[in-house]
């Protein structure tokens, strides 16, 4: 576990001191965590208010890519359904886009590749304490959501994956600011090649301003929702619900 999740000792007196501590430090103070996680709007609103949400993650040159890029999380979903998709080169895979949208979509891998794509070389920071630089290619999530037509009530985007944790699909979520960030993409290629299984084939989320556990792999569904209260235990993701990871993992 990296330092950002280590509880710091001592306290900060006064509201001004709390804000000056910065987002990472704020969420590490027990009293502040109690406030931040007291309710959906307070938790997510205050965390996001303390960050520059429009800033771009640093991008790197091709020669700065890491020679080894470890896989985070699941290395292979291993289910019968996923094995069948992989055996067919993911020709039968479809990414469902639904929830609070006007035009539900079912996108094939060929559909994603045919969309305007963005390539970016960025650093992946894992909560386990390692980092690596890689190149990712795929359409911007925001453009896919525009094609689906978000309804006015939509506030969050939920990702459901092919890998199972405790017998249920892995899931994560982001808000609309991150969803429409230009560096948030549905990556189908890594370092100029189609994604392999350990890195999330056939498609994974890249949300470059957040830690690695937010970058959901093996995407199967994308749903626009008004609230996260009905998703898992209501904190917005598998690790948030089960290990108390921060919902907003900004870096």
From TrEMBL:
Residues 91-225 form the Oxidoreductase molybdopterin-binding domain. It comes from the Bacteria. Gene3D superfamilies: Oxidoreductase, molybdopterin-binding domain. InterPro entries: OxRdtase_Mopterin-bd_dom, OxRdtase_Mopterin-bd_sf. PANTHER family: BLL0505 PROTEIN (PTHR43032:SF2), PROTEIN-METHIONINE-SULFOXIDE REDUCTASE (PTHR43032). This is DMSO/TMAO reductase YedYZ molybdopterin-dependent catalytic subunit. It comes from Sphingomonas abaci. The lineage of its organism: Bacteria, Pseudomonadati, Pseudomonadota, Alphaproteobacteria, Sphingomonadales.
């Amino acid at each position: 576990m990296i330092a950002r999740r280590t509880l710091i000792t001592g306290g900060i007196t006064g509201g001004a001191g709390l804000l000056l501590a910065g987002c990472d430090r704020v969420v590490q103070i027990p009293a502040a965590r109690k406030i931040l996680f007291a309710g959906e709007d307070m938790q997510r609103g205050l965390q996001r208010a303390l960050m520059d949400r429009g800033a771009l993650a640093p991008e790197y040159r091709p020669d700065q890519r890491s020679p080894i890029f470890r896989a985070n999380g699941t290395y292979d979903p291993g289910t019968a359904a996923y094995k069948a998709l992989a055996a067919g080169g993911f020709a039968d895979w479809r990414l469902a886009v639904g929830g609070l949208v006007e035009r539900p979509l079912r996108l094939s891998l060929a559909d994603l590749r045919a969309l305007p794509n963005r390539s970016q070389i960025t650093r992946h920071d894992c909560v386990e304490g390692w980092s690596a630089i890689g190149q990712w290619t795929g359409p911007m999530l925001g453009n896919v959501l525009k094609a689906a037509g978000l309804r006015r009530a939509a506030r969050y985007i939920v990702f459901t994956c092919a890998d199972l944790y405790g017998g249920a699909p892995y899931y994560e979520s982001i808000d609309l600011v991150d969803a429409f960030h230009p560096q948030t993409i549905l990556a189908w290629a890594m370092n100029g090649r189609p994604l392999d299984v350990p890195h999330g084939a056939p498609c994974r989320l890249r949300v470059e301003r957040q830690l690695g556990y937010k970058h959901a792999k093996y995407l199967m569904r994308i749903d626009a929702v008004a609230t996260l209260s009905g998703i898992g235990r209501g904190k917005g993701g598998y690790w948030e619900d089960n290990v108390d990871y921060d919902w907003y993992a900004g870096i």
